[in-house]
Design brief:
Blueprint (H helix, E strand, L loop, with lengths): L1 H9 L1 H33 L10 E3 L7 E3 H36 L11 H23 L23
Antiparallel strand pairs: 1-2
Helix pairs in contact: 2-3
């Protein structure tokens, strides 16, 4: 039981995930400090002197202040973190994946066959199989059996 748990923990994916969570937490703290210390004061400067930031108060109670500055700061936090993650993690991994595919001989930009192309290929293979079966079995002059299906006709089917 403990050996299985040890194997699970020692797998690369779990260790990489734990490392990513720790680094992500530290990075979030840095971004929060930058936005709270630099960006939030700039946003608060847009508010009036008697207000703590950009927003409004619903009643005369201080606890009813709607602070748009905090929402804008959170959105800026998100955009900064998303941009850093994309440009420093996602883009390099995508480039490494494409390079690995090219080394294996797979063209990453080659389009996959469409459904119609695959269906046409299947139809052609079935017709070839039907023709070879009819030629071997000697079904007679008509060349048809009870299990034959006419894939070449347009009887309500779309042709590729």
């Amino acid at each position: 039981m403990l050996k299985g748990f040890k194997d699970f923990i020692m797998r690369g994916n779990v260790i990489e995930l734990a490392t990513a969570v720790i680094i992500g937490s530290a990075f979030t703290a840095i971004v929060t400090a930058v936005t709270d210390s630099i960006i939030q004061p700039i946003i608060n400067s847009l508010g009036s002197a008697e207000v703590d930031g950009l927003g409004f108060q619903i009643t005369d109670n201080k606890n009813t202040f709607v602070d748009f500055g905090a929402v804008i700061t959170a959105a800026i936090n998100f955009l900064i973190i998303a941009a850093v993650v994309y440009f420093l993690i996602v883009m390099p991994i995508n480039k490494l994946t494409e390079a690995a595919k090219r080394r294996q001989g797979v063209d990453p930009e080659a389009p996959a066959p469409t459904s119609e192309e695959l269906l046409a290929e299947i139809r052609d293979l079935l017709e070839a199989q039907k023709a070879s079966t009819n030629g071997i079995s000697g079904t007679g002059a008509t060349g048809s059996t009870d299990t034959d299906t006419d894939f070449g006709s347009t009887g309500g089917r779309h042709q590729a």
